[in-house]
Write a structure and sequence with these properties.
This protein is an alpha+beta fold. The chain has a domain of 137 residues: NADH Oxidase (3-Layer(aba) Sandwich). The protein is 31% helix and 14% strand. It is built from 7 helices and 4 strands. Strands 1-2-4-3 form a 4-stranded antiparallel sheet, with helices on both faces. The longest helix is centred in the middle third of the chain and has 18 residues. The relative contact order is 0.18.
Length: 213
């Protein structure tokens, strides 16, 4: 089995892949601590450009994002207030907050778009990989207050705030409170592929059938 031996200085925690993967994917993780320094506008433009070019069902591109930086305190506090309190505690230190919104209907037919949330995830994944390449960290959250977001941002019917992201530069873990330090220092863990890649029938690992090594 092959492993990623060296990771960029961005990662304080090493992924332990069983097979070779791209270094950016191995480097990516979601810190709770962020430095105060601002993210250059050029980098923000590029990470959203990466989101723009994500694949989507029928090229619907059902995602929208609200962004707020600490340069505009009132906007930052407004977006921060759309997070659940437990996420506000640590996300308030990030220089950039983002709210992900998804259209749940196709624009032309007005029928339900069952791929919409999946496609928002694809766009955000593109964003995260581009951010990692620029030595930025992204912590994604499902813990938001959708109704508050709808009210504050006048989100129309058939659209829904779905996720949020904190973006910035990872802080030194020594600067964090004990609870957050423990989270940032905890080893990364993932289920093996045998538990989610099947063939033939549910629960039958593809590796056991010789489809994967």
């Amino acid at each position: 089995m092959s492993t990623i031996i060296s990771l960029s200085p961005l990662s304080a925690k090493k992924a332990s892949p069983e097979y070779p993967i791209q270094r950016l994917l191995a480097d990516r993780w979601s810190p709770y601590g962020f430095e105060e320094r601002q993210v250059p506008e050029a980098d923000l433009s590029s990470i959203f450009e990466a989101a723009r070019w994500a694949a989507s069902s029928y090229n619907e591109q059902p995602w929208s994002y609200f962004i707020a930086t600490r340069k505009t305190p009132a906007e930052f506090e407004r977006l921060l207030s759309c997070l659940v309190p437990a996420n506000q505690v640590w996300a308030k230190a990030a220089p950039v907050l983002v709210l992900g919104v998804v259209s749940l209907q196709f624009a032309k037919t007005h029928k339900e778009n069952r791929a919409a949330v999946h496609d928002l995830g694809l766009a955000s994944a593109n964003l995260v990989v581009e951010a990692t390449a620029r030595r930025l960290s992204v912590h994604q959250m499902i813990g938001i207050l959708p109704d508050r977001a709808r009210e504050l941002y006048l989100i129309p019917e058939h659209y829904e705030a779905w996720t949020a992201m904190a973006i910035g530069y990872k802080a030194d873990t020594d600067t964090l409170p004990d609870a957050l330090r423990e989270r940032d220092l905890a080893p990364r863990q993932r289920k093996p592929a045998s538990q989610f890649v099947f063939t033939g029938s549910w629960g039958q690992p593809a590796s056991a059938a010789g489809v994967l090594r």
